[in-house]
Task: inverse folding
């Protein structure tokens, strides 16, 4: 689901949406990805904007083009996405979490216990 009121660019949200579908198993290797026209129709956006998001995934090797047929999920796409997102998690997200925990005077062992006990709302 795209958040058209977000500060994040729509084309980035489109790319992340497809990545999420791949990570969740909704799109598998060799499955056809939604088209630019499908995104444009559903979200009432310019097809060029949707195309930019899909092109980004082509550049990253997550999708590939079949001339006249559309975009498809590349072999190894899930592995590529996991690698990219894990790197982002460890280099950007986790350091910010650790900095905030320090500001809030939450000890590291308290964070570790929380992570071990966390069930994701389940």
Result:
């Amino acid at each position: 689901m795209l958040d058209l009121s977000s500060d994040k660019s729509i084309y980035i949200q489109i790319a992340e949406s497809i990545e999420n579908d791949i990570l969740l198993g909704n799109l598998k290797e060799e499955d056809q990805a939604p088209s630019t026209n499908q995104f444009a129709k559903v979200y009432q956006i310019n097809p060029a904007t949707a195309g930019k998001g899909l092109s980004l995934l082509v550049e990253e090797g997550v999708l590939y083009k079949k001339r006249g047929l559309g975009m498809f999920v590349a072999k190894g796409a899930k592995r590529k996405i996991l690698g990219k997102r894990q790197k982002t998690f460890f280099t950007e997200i986790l350091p910010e979490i650790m900095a905030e925990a320090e500001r809030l005077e939450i000890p590291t062992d308290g964070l570790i216990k929380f992570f071990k006990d966390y069930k994701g709302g389940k």
User: Anything to note?
Assistant: Helices lie at 10-23, 36-43, 47-59, 77-103, 108-117. Residues 36 and 50 are 5 Å apart (CA to CA). The chain has two domains: 10-75, 78-120.
